[in-house]
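Next comes one such specimen:
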Amino acid sequence: MSGKLTSFLRGLPVSGRIGLALVVFWLVVALVGPWLAPYSVGAFVDQDVFSGISSQFWLGSDYLGRDVLSRVLWGSRYTVFLALGAAMIAVCIGTSFALLAAIRGGWTDEVISRAMDTFISIPSKIFALVLVAAFGSSLSLLLVIAAATYVPGNFRIARALAMNLVALDFVQVARARGEGSVHIALREVLPNMIHPLLADTGLRFVFVVLLLSGLSFLGLGVQPPHADLGSLVRENISGITEGALAIIVPALAIATLTVGANLLIDALKPGGKA
């Protein structure tokens, strides 16, 4: 196991290693951050607002005198895990429909493809705003919105991959042996789609991070007293003229997370090409 990991790391270019380090860093922060936070997420601990770095507040305080470090450590959990969960759900659903469409073909492919084309034509922000306005903002709804928004995009990529594979000889041989659709999908087609799908999952993750951050910036994401990284930027927007760390730090967190994921995705592509 350690040999495979070492070989994998050696095979990554410098940009890929940087991306991997950034992604792993934020995953670790999301996992253990709340236990490392010096204060609770909504505690008012500073009489001053937008204070600078000090021994008591390593990243200063926000617009209400709350510890920025604690808020970022808590907020990263919502951003990372909501985005990761939504991306994985979107890829699983989109790939399942793609395999069904590619293997069955005919009217099944036509109906699913046209439905996905219709759904993908709806702007993601408008779709999210309508659902949040109708049902209110909650973590489960945000997860559903983010996942549903990116199912069609994954379906298109997965269907293109599956269609190419279904036409190959080894799939035709499996059909001639009398193998069922489930066997062909899971044992013949899907294993040959794994690497492109992993790259697409990374892209969906980045898209979901930006979507959730955008919703939170509009006040429609994770609700107070909890917050994700996008919420932290929005609520401290008044400190931008002062260059307050309360707005700079979460913005940098979103940037490093998305840039790191993109660098890692590019490094994982076959041949290292974009």
